[in-house]
Amino acid sequence: MSTRRARIISQGNKQHLQLKVQTGDLLINEKLDREELCGPTEPCILHFQVLMEKPLEIFQAELRVIDINDHSPIFTEKEIILKIPENSPLGTEFPLYHALDSDVGSNNVQNYKISPNSHFGILTKERTDGRKYPELVLDKELDREEEPQLRLTLTALDGGSPPRSGTAQVHIEVVDINDNAPEFEQPIYKVRIPENSSLGSLVATVSARDLDSGANGKISYSLFQPSEDISKTLEVNAMTGEIRLRKQVDFEGVTSYEVHIKATDGGGLSGKCTLLLQVVDVNDNPPQVTMSALTSPIPENSPEIVVAVFSVSDPDSGNNGKTISSIQEDLPFLLKPSVKNFYTLVTERALDREARAEYNITLTVTDMGTPRLKTEHNITVQISDVNDNAPAFTQTFYTLFVRENNSPALHIGSVSATDSDSGTNAQTTANGHLFALRSLDYEALQAFEFHVGAADRGSPELSSEALVRVLVLDANDNSPFVLYPLQNGSAPCTELVPRAAEPGYLVTKVVAVDGDSGQNAWLSYQLLKATEPGLFGVWAHNGEVRTARLLSERDATKHRLVVLVKDNGEPPRSATATLHVLLVDGFSQPYLPLPEAAPAQAQDDWLTVYLVVALASVSSLFLLSVLLFVAVRLCRRSRAASVGRCTVPESPFPGHLVDVSGTGTLSQSYQYEVCLTGGSEANEFKFLNPIIPNFPP
């Protein structure tokens, strides 16, 4: 019984019984008073139920309270006064007030006795409701002149063991002759009144007549031996015999009354009638709901759980006491009738707390009376959480951006996951903040992906994952690198330009790269320094170095150009390239366009011959100087190749690289030098596509 959680449910608010679930003993909480519990009703039965919760089961039970003789008979009137005519015939019966005893059955009043005397005896009679009352019987004629009054003691005895008793004094006055006693028109009056009758309502009118005249024929009416309840409920008009309500009757309290009415004339003679008053039930009591058990909260995902056990009662009778119970139709609950006006409220299906965490249920109980009365009882049922939902990320795929060269432990973003459960079932194991543990390098790693998991603290633990893609943003952290001409500290490369070059002649092209991306890798070129400003220019977008004007004999032979290579980052980074340009006469002259023939001269004079000889000598010296310069340059490159493994073409500029358009050499292809240090790796340089210049025709 302890495992099944057995308990006692009693009718009413007072718990008279208790159950020891360990032994099954049924105990009373306090001393029971049968008269207080049931009054005159016999047998006295207390109804109760034994409720088993696991599983739900209800047993009906009754406890009968047996009466003991713990009350003595009591007369409501301690002195009874009778006026009896002296000529009353023998055997005349005179009714007396009966005694009251709260006990029932054999413990109630069973017998009456009268003190010894020579004129009267006593009879014990029984009413229709089982109560016994006394009547005084005249055994010997009275003589007022001899004995005008008598005093007797009336004793009421109950049937207990030992018997209890109560006494009253009977005072008899012997009066002169009054020939006729009052007589009622009906010995029994039967009346029905509804229980909702108002105070002062007329119940009935009794009437008696007396054949005597004068004072002996004047009649007054009164209640005869009324109980305390009747005295409070009814009153009689002594002159008219009208019986009216002093207080409202209640069918649920008393269903009927037996009232005795006495009519007494002026001479002291009296007559008696009986009023049988039947109280008619009116639907004046709404149904009552008594909650015996309520389970809240209840776990989700569990079908057919008993939520509540309650009983319904209506003290009215007939259809007025019949009830119908219901709940709202849009709820996932069912009402199931159980034993004797008991109902169980159960779940219709498995409930989902995430869809609805609380239900407000209204139990509506309506009776079948007219008008119908109803009672509503509200209960709130909470749904407890079960860990049935994994954390859900707000996005299945996150994209985060972080600029390279970040500081370690930098917060790069956050992911967020929510759990529709509650309490610990909704608490996730991480806060969703993401940090970069080390500095990132865009040139080494442009993007990477990883999974982020979120787990709750429920049991069992549930988890989910989201994909995070991190894009590394480029920072301008790489300066431009000049591929050509090489700036490695070795002997500089010298570009040869014929003095006959036209403006826009391509001298060389500065080639540079930038390890960054986007606008950080957009390069621009400008001439930073020049031996003779205005002679050479650099195209800003491709790094081509071209002559800006025609060359003259006054221009210096050697020129040093410093070209600035700058990226488009913020702030911008730059590098410089140093070029050496040598102006030469006659370089590629055989392939230059022939000048127009001059007009023939009349004759060669000696001055012309001298000039030709001088020019030939100078040309020879210049050619020798050029050959020596080329030889020295090739020797230096051979030594550099042995030290830095500098790879150069095996032959000098091919003779077929001719500027047929008149814009200079290197017009159709470019020659590059790539130097590698001893520990260089393959991934430390990039190969560039050749840029084919597009010159105007």
Topology:
Layout: E1 6-10, E2 17-20, E3 25-28, H1 34-38, E4 44-52, E5 57-65, E6 74-75, E7 79-85, E8 93-95, E9 99-100, E10 109-114, E11 120-126, E12 132-138, E13 149-158, E14 165-175, E15 183-184, E16 188-194, E17 202-205, E18 208-209, E19 219-223, H2 228-233, E20 234-236, E21 242-245, E22 256-265, E23 270-280, E24 288-294, E25 298-299, E26 306-313, E27 323-326, E28 333-337, E29 342-347, E30 358-367, E31 374-384, E32 392-393, E33 397-403, E34 410-414, E35 417-418, E36 433-436, E37 447-455, E38 463-473, E39 481-484, E40 494-498, E41 506-509, E42 511-513, E43 524-530, E44 536-538, E45 544-547, E46 558-566, E47 574-584, H3 606-644, E48 646-647, E49 674-675
Parallel strand pairs: 7-14, 16-23, 25-31, 33-38, 40-47
Antiparallel strand pairs: 1-4, 2-3, 4-5, 6-9, 8-12, 10-13, 11-12, 13-14, 15-18, 17-21, 19-22, 20-21, 22-23, 24-26, 26-29, 27-30, 28-29, 30-31, 32-35, 34-36, 37-38, 39-42, 41-45, 43-46, 44-45, 46-47, 48-49
